[in-house]
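INSTRUCTION: Work out how this chain folds

Fields: amino acid sequence; protein backbone structure tokens

Chain under study, with its fold:
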Amino acid sequence: MDQARLNWSRWWRGMLLAVLCALVYYVSYDHGRESLKFRLKEQESRFQEEQDRLLLEIRRVRDQLSDCLAAQGGAEPAGAIRVALRTNQSQTLFDNQLTLSVLDLDSEAGQVRVQLNFLLENRLVIGELAVGGSLRFSLGGRDWAVVVNGLTLTTANLNLMEIKSDP
């Protein structure tokens, strides 16, 4: 009888140990999930704060730029044309005399390859430009420049500006 009682006692101890282990595992697993949720909420709130800060900074810079342009007497220089083109996209300008195309765009390197197609002269000019760089050309007796104003992942923002020489 002693042996049966010993076996029964071992069996209960084993069961209690298994239940205890399962309880510890569940509590630690549940705590890990809650901890992960808490960390995700913290990161999300930090991301939202950073996004709000960046939006405020963008608004501040935009306001400064508009104030600066207003102080200069206009939003753009006289004779400037703004064009936003994606890769392999074109726009015809100057009463169908010129087609401006973006052949390739590498926003990471800050480079864009543009093509000027002078339709009346049947002539092509291709240039690789960096942000802030320009490509000069003449059309209709006037001098112009294509200036790369900025690049996004998919779009090149270009300005066509008339170059006026001092007499």
